[in-house]
Amino acid sequence: MSVNYESRYAIGPHETKALDTKALRDNFLIENVFADDTIQLVYTHYDRYLAGGAKPVGKPLPLETIDALKASYFLERRELGIINVGGAGKVSVDGEVYELGFKEALYVGRGHRDVVFSSDNAGRPAKFYLNSAPAHRAYPSKKVTKAEAETVELGSLETANHRVINKLLVNSVVETCQLQMGMTELKTGSVWNTMPAHTHDRRMEVYFYFEVPEGQSVSHFMGQPEETRHIWMQNEQAVISPPWSIHAGAGTSNYTFIWGMAGENLDYDDMDKRAITELK
Predict the structure, then answer these.
(1) Domains within the chain, CATH numbers bracketed
(2) Is residue 220 marked as binding?
């Protein structure tokens, strides 16, 4: 079997206050998103969300079901979002082949039985970042390029948060049940993401940081606005953000991150904003 997974149980803000650095990382940080010729997954009990990566090098990788789903195949009751952060590759969905280049996305709807990942060149393998959520109905699969994304430019160099948000798999671009994914690219000289910070009690989120230059890091901030915590992260790592937590970060360089979320609604702007001066 080419799929490895682990489960992460949901914990609340009061329990999180008592965690030391190691326990905080053990609960929320996904250190190893990619491994050669393996699909790595973390099954989180926040909205039953799955996050991980597929890195086919020497062979194609089929997306096999895992015991936690109690399903005869992976997408029996789920939808899947894919963004390629590596070399060119292909995703076969019940025999229909989608070619995915760097930073291109694919939505795969509920009910597809056979999903297989492959790379065009083993010397520069594809890295398919994966997010999945439960789905109540089947929507058509759809590839979305950066050119087809809904984009928003925010922030400024003066506040070190000049960035472009690429909304790839959102309901204004592709029909989904609850899964939404996009990619935020920080401009040179900017390091802060998602500032001012916010929470959204109606959905959880996962951040995946990449294009972090060698020797640089990102400090991801989480926790309730009145009592924040931080997790230092390296390139190609992900972090789980519970509904009660802020999710923001600052790097020692500019970088790119993918956000994925699921929960009660599909309203991207449904968030409870907190002023920077309120954070503690």
Answers:
(1) 3-278 (2.60.120.10)
(2) no
